[in-house]
């Protein structure tokens, strides 16, 4: 496939979406001519080093149509003159009847703006996330005739209605997702003969180089050398951080530990209050959002990574959290839950520890056992590191993506079918 590839993102840059930045950078290095169009301006005060390395031009669509009425009007008027406008309008009307929301109207307006302002030589529109960015990409594609494709991830898969997913899977050239669990949901809705592809989020192992793994010694007995627990996650419902704080409060009082939380999110204040109520606030440090270099140093200084993911009340859930892959790359053992794609990396007792979600008692018991067993943490962490290095190398995963962009068609290229990243997906 020739021409520029326009990536449509929900927001850019975002600290919580390192995997997208890494993918864009790798595709640039692989020779793709990319341009980024985001629906939302950045809200994070920091960026990761990889964001500074990306050369692609970044443009922003109006987040709300009333913010740029003349720009939107020009987009709509220009779209009305296109042969594909009637088809796009028909798709929007069908969507709007099933989703009577201002959000749906906003996406159509943004699609009109994108259709008018697409850079010359655009050969493909690619949406990261199958919900709102894919809606904008779809409308713009119908108006312009430029082909489009999708990367679907987690929340966008699990909180989108079936009809919306089915329409986009049918109309896009191809779709790719990052976990077997997500793939199964998409392929249950995809048209016959047009399956989505599975490509895990690879990790740049040059950026996450492994250091010699020292034998751990902190076992919770010495108050001057407490076990160091780490969580990197936004404080949102699906991360289950309330379960973690409750579990910390259940640990024996004489067990020496410290927990560090990295990340923003609307739930941070509630977590702090919960830690205070549980009597463990003096052992908890809330660091806020940090860049990748700072987080890497914390992985290397910690004894156990903890992330009790759950399925939220609205169906939202993680795919395979990139932070678990990152922590594992540094031989840091992880305690998590068997939700969605987590089991596609971690096997309980083999290279990680898994507990039922929403069970503070079970989580506390497993936490205590791991804190008291540094040799077990060492064994699990080393096995997790080896798994990541053999199966989650971005040099492999990005090759499959480049092939999809090059071939411009649905389905995983045959040459990639036996690639290491595709192994062991029966774990889901």
Describe this structure in words.
By secondary structure, the protein is of the alpha/beta class. The chain has 2 domains: 4-202 and 393-427, Glycogen Phosphorylase B (Rossmann fold); 227-390, Glycogen Phosphorylase B (Rossmann fold, 3-Layer(aba) Sandwich), CATH 3.40.50.2000. It is built from 16 helices and 13 strands. A 7-stranded parallel beta sheet has the order 3-2-1-4-5-6-7, sandwiched between helices. β11 (304-306), α13 (322-329) and β12 (334-336) form a beta-alpha-beta unit. α4 (85-98) packs antiparallel against α6. The longest helix has 18 residues, at 374-391. The radius of gyration is 22 Å and the shape is elongated. Residues 410-428 have low confidence and may be disordered.
Regarding CATH, which class of the largest domain?
A: Alpha Beta
The CATH topology of the largest domain is what? Answer: Rossmann fold
Query: What is the total number of structural domains?
Result: 2
Low-pLDDT stretches: 410-428
The proportion of residues forming helix, as a percent range, comes to 40-55%
| Alpha-beta classification | alpha/beta
CATH superfamily of the largest domain: Glycogen Phosphorylase B
Question: How does CATH name the architecture of the largest domain?
Answer: 3-Layer(aba) Sandwich
Amount of beta strand: 5-15%
Shape: elongated
Give the neighbour order of strands across the main sheet.
3-2-1-4-5-6-7
Radius of gyration: 22 Å
How many H/I helices?
16
Roughly how many Å apart are the termini?
33 Å
Mean pLDDT: 92
Major sheet attributes: 7 strands, parallel
